[in-house]
Write a structure and sequence with these properties.
The complex is a heterodimer of chains A (about 180) and B (about 230).
Chain A (H helix, E strand, L loop, with lengths): L2 H9 L4 H19 L4 H18 L8 H20 L17 E4 L5 H14 L3 H11 L5 H8 L3 H21 L5
Chain B lengths: L1 E4 H5 L4 H9 L3 H13 L1 H31 L25 E2 L5 E2 L4 E3 L3 H8 L11 E7 L7 E6 L4 E6 L11 E8 L2 E8 L2 E8 L2 E6 L6 H14 L3
Antiparallel strand pairs in B: 2-3, 4-5, 5-6, 6-7, 7-11, 8-9, 9-10, 10-11
Classes of the chains: A mainly alpha (about 180), B alpha+beta (about 230).
């Protein structure tokens, strides 16, 4: 079923929309959540995702349904992971983010969205390979080994490239006024 | 001051970036995306601007050294004399080479062809005549044996481009898809970039892009695209 048809079903509160969503994107969502949580928790996160989507559409009508679903399930999985690791406060275990775990956004009240928008602008300035590697690594949590296999690159090439991109992002954000 | 974790900030990136990363799921898709990126006019500019600038600098430097070598100093510019050489028009798609005077010729990838008919002829598909719109500039971009893009700008600020089918020929990266609608069984996609709408579609074996004039909205683009689709000779 086409995404537009699924969104229309969800818009009219037809439960068939959820079935279609599950059969078309269930495996993808499980994979995104599974990069963050153990299998059983990941399955629960995917179910929570369906519930949230059911509540969000309408009024929201996503342009890119698949991306929207990934965003929702990722946030749910991340929140669950944090709840489970509340005492540690150390996200380096989640991914090798080096010194990028905390971005301090001064002044603005909407600093949270501001950093996201700044990263968007940074991504716009990258070539397509860098952008894809960066988003797959830091949004979808795909491992460097998996990225290397997927794109026919060496793991070392991917790691070096990601390291350079992190450095570039750090410089970019500093230039934009964010303290890291 | 408010601390935001990097992972939370990444969760706020645009869905178009996620969409792109999900769509590029293997080596083949990545190669295709790279090629499409290089074919975009913006990509071309990035790809060619530095090498061309470097070549020009080298040519100028060599010329300067030769002049200094002959006289021990830089000759003053000639006054009231005929130019030493006559620049010949570079041939579309020609390799850089020397003209009859031994000067290095670097063909400009962007060529003004003078009329929509000439653009159509260069691209291999007749370019439509749009009633009520007067062509202002008619260009093609060519960096290989075949022109990559043809573009006609009209005096009212609108533009129509033609390129290889299946490609995003807009030259705009980061446009947001607003809607998709059919015109004569052709699927038209309307995008906006910084509130400026444009439309992309494939028709008759080519990709077409309509750029709205400044201040136009998506509704006026829809009307214009219907006019253009009907005018494109099938």
């Amino acid at each position: 079923m086409e995404d537009e048809a699924i969104v229309s079903l969800l818009f009219s509160k037809d439960a068939e929309g959820l079935d279609a969503l599950s059969s078309k994107y269930g495996a993808l969502l499980l994979s995104v959540a599974g990069h963050i949580l153990p299998q059983r928790d990941a399955e629960e996160a995917v179910n929570d995702c369906y519930f949230k989507v059911w509540k969000t559409i309408p009024p929201y009508r996503p342009v890119y349904l698949r991306s929207f679903l990934c965003k929702v399930v990722r946030q749910i999985a991340l929140d669950r992971w944090r709840t489970a690791h509340r005492k540690k406060r150390d996200e380096t275990a989640l991914a090798d983010l080096e010194d990028l775990e905390l971005l301090a956004a001064p002044v603005q009240d909407d600093a949270y969205e501001g950093v996201g928008a700044a990263i968007d602008a940074f991504l716009d300035g990258l070539d397509v390979e860098s952008r894809t590697l960066f988003v797959r690594r830091y949004f979808l949590w795909e491992s460097p080994a998996s990225l290397a296999q997927r794109f026919g690159l060496t793991e070392n090439h991917v790691s070096v490239k990601l390291h350079r991109l992190r450095e570039k992002l750090r410089k970019y954000l500093r230039k934009e006024g964010y303290a890291i | 001051m408010k601390d935001t974790s990097f992972s939370d900030a990444m969760g706020q990136i645009s869905e178009r970036h996620i969409h792109e990363a999900l769509a590029i799921d293997g080596k083949e898709a990545l190669d295709k995306a790279r090629q499409a990126e290089q074919r975009r006019p913006g990509g071309l500019l990035r790809r060619f601007a530095l090498p061309v600038a470097a070549c020009l600098s080298a040519v100028l430097a060599v010329g300067l050294l030769i002049r200094m070598g002959r006289s021990g100093t830089i000759d003053p510019a000639p006054v009231d004399t005929e130019p030493e050489t006559v620049q010949t028009e570079p041939v579309l798609g020609a390799d850089p080479g020397e003209n009859s005077n031994g000067e290095v010729q670097i063909p400009n990838p962007m060529q003004d062809l003078g009329s929509p008919e000439a653009v159509g002829e260069a691209m291999g598909h007749a370019f439509p005549v749009l009633p009520g719109r007067t062509p202002e500039t008619c260009t093609v971009i060519q960096y290989g044996p075949v022109p990559a893009l043809g573009r006609v700008s009209y005096t009212d600020g609108t533009e129509l481009a033609i390129g290889p089918a299946g490609e995003d020929i807009s030259g705009i990266y980061g446009g947001e898809l607003v809607e998709t609608f059919p015109v004569e069984d052709i699927s038209i996609s309307i995008f906006t970039y910084e509130d400026q709408p444009y439309a992309l579609w494939d028709q008759d074996g080519f990709a077409w892009c309509w750029y709205a004039a400044e201040g136009e909205n998506t509704a006026s683009v829809e009307g214009a695209v219907q006019e253009v689709v009907s005018a494109i000779p099938g």
